[in-house]
Specification:
By secondary structure, this protein is of the alpha/beta class. Helix content is 34%, strand content 17%. Helix 4 links the parallel strand 7 and strand 8. Helix 4 packs across helix 5, helix 4 runs parallel beside helix 11 and helix 10 runs parallel beside helix 11. The chain is elongated.
């Protein structure tokens, strides 16, 4: 529900509204425009907030219901882009993230060498897997807590903030020094995990499930936000279709759709989406042209010998080429063609019509 207040509404009127909502267990979101104020209400409003009682208040001009089930993630309730800060690396609101590193941490030498190489090429964050979800129980499952220690050592060596995947909420204590926690595609609808991660206040990289709709993707983000954490980056990593030429089907159309529907930043993982290293550069370039807020790319110093996802991993030299191409594309389209966040006035006009 969104309330449009009259232009004569005072600060005391807004405080009165907030008290009324909070007293009913609802969460008010104040959106101030140049001339009027809109108030979004988060929670079960149909049973807890009779519209006729609110409409009777002298400072309320109009009431409009919001049909989308996701509220906190909805751009209508938060017109400006969210900027996520992970250890000094910013994502969203014009800040472009380049997350790069190996699919799996294999040794100290490997992760340090790759970390130094991707930083030199322009990466803003180091990605790497310590706990690895694998389709086969016989495949390499990662170095687990030892892998986390090696990744933190690479962070100290290079200064790059790190992002790595959590497999179980029981491991959360091990992630205290991790800058951004990744929720993998298989865990996107692990709702108990999402609720617990919402209590951490730590930046979360939420990957889209392989069969998830955009609505389901945003509802997963809503679970985290409902527990108090709004530092979320959405990651498209390809969805499952009937096509077999690539590992998954990269849904680049999700970039403008998500930018329209949510204020959360959107990054693209062309490595998992295609599963083929030679396709990654063109898909990374296409994502940048489509307005993505960042890229997550797998880079290995010896892909042929990688213990995990070698066929989709770039060498450091190829990654450096990708970075140069992406920067050229972003400079060509910067701001002029980039999707712009909607203003509070736009929200008010839409709700009042």
């Amino acid at each position: 529900m969104i309330l449009i207040l009259k232009s004569t509404a005072t600060r005391d009127d807004i405080s009165d509204l907030k008290s009324r909502f909070e007293g009913r267990g609802l969460r008010p979101v104040i959106m101030e425009g140049a001339e009027k104020v809109a108030v979004g209400i988060i929670g079960e409003t149909r049973s807890h907030l009779p519209a006729d009682q609110i409409q009777a208040l002298p400072y309320v001009e109009a009431i409009r219901r919001v049909s989308d089930p996701y509220k906190l993630a909805n751009r209508v309730f938060h017109p400006e882009d969210t900027v996520v800060n992970a250890g000094g690396a910013k994502v969203g609101g014009g800040h472009f993230a380049l997350m790069a590193g190996p699919c799996s941490i294999e040794s100290r030498e490997q992760i340090i060498e790759v970390a130094q190489a991707v930083k030199a090429a322009g990466a803003t964050m180091l990605r790497g897997g310590a706990f690895k979800p694998r389709t086969s129980p016989y495949d390499f499952q990662g170095l687990r807590d030892e892998g986390l220690k090696l990744m933190l050592e690479a962070k100290r060596e290079t200064g790059l903030p790190i992002v790595t995947e959590i497999m179980s909420i029981d491991h959360l204590a091990l992630f205290e020094d991790v800058d951004m926690i990744q929720v993998g595609a298989r865990s996107m609808q692990n709702f108990e995990m999402l609720k617990e991660l919402g209590k951490t206040k730590k930046p979360i990289l939420l990957k889209r499930g392989m069969c998830a709709t955009i609505k389901e993707f945003l509802m997963a983000a809503e679970y985290i936000m409902a527990s108090g954490n709004d530092q979320i980056v959405l990651c498209e990593r390809g969805i499952r279709t009937y096509e077999t030429a690539t590992r998954n089907t990269l849904d680049l159309s999700c970039i403008p759709v998500l930018h329209e529907r949510t204020h959360l930043p959107v990054v693209i993982d062309p490595s998992h989406a295609t599963g083929v290293a030679r396709y990654v550069p063109s898909m990374a370039a296409a994502a940048a042209a489509a307005g993505a807020d960042g890229l997550m790319i797998e880079v290995h110093n010896n892909p042929a010998a990688a213990l995990c996802d070698g066929p989709q991993s770039l060498t450091p030299d190829v990654f450096a080429d990708v970075v140069r191409t992406v920067k050229t594309i972003r400079n060509a389209i910067r701001m002029k063609d980039a999707p712009k966040p909607i203003s509070v006035e736009t929200v008010i006009r839409a709700c009042a019509s």
